[in-house]
Amino acid sequence: YAWDANEEYLFKAMVAFAMRRYSSKSTTQISNVLLCNVTDRVSFWFVVTDSSKNVTTVPGSEVEAAIRMNRNRINNAFLLSDKTLQFLKITSTLSPPVEPSTPVWLIVFGVVLCLIVAGIVFLIVSGIQKHKK
């Protein structure tokens, strides 16, 4: 994935958008989102500062809630999904895996049991036919 200054700007803008939308305040600017330890693999951590209090950072719980609330918009901005854009410590919005109504082990057990019963019936029927001949 090509990560450059434009992508970084878009990410900061999306986080600022999420913060504005979550807190209903228009004080969060793009300059309030700080990216740290950006690597070549597009891995980094970020903080959001509060411009009204100058250097104070916004509590992590508020940032998490804002990201969770606007996660779909952030994914769509980068044309990614929850599988490709991960926020550590923020649960994904993926639906839980579908649990079959019947456990898999029970299905396998039923198939094996049917094969054994069919084999026994075949042996009995072939034995009766040989005995008649």
Automatic annotation (TrEMBL):
Residues 1-133 form the Collectrin-like domain. It is found in: Cell membrane. One of its GO terms (biological process) is positive regulation of amino acid transport. GO terms for cellular component: extracellular exosome; plasma membrane. The keyword Transmembrane helix applies. InterPro entries: Collectrin, Collectrin_dom. The chain crosses the membrane at residues 104-125. Keywords: Cell membrane, Glycoprotein, Membrane, Phosphoprotein, Signal, Transmembrane, Transmembrane helix. It is a single-pass type I membrane protein. PANTHER family: COLLECTRIN. This is TMM27 protein.
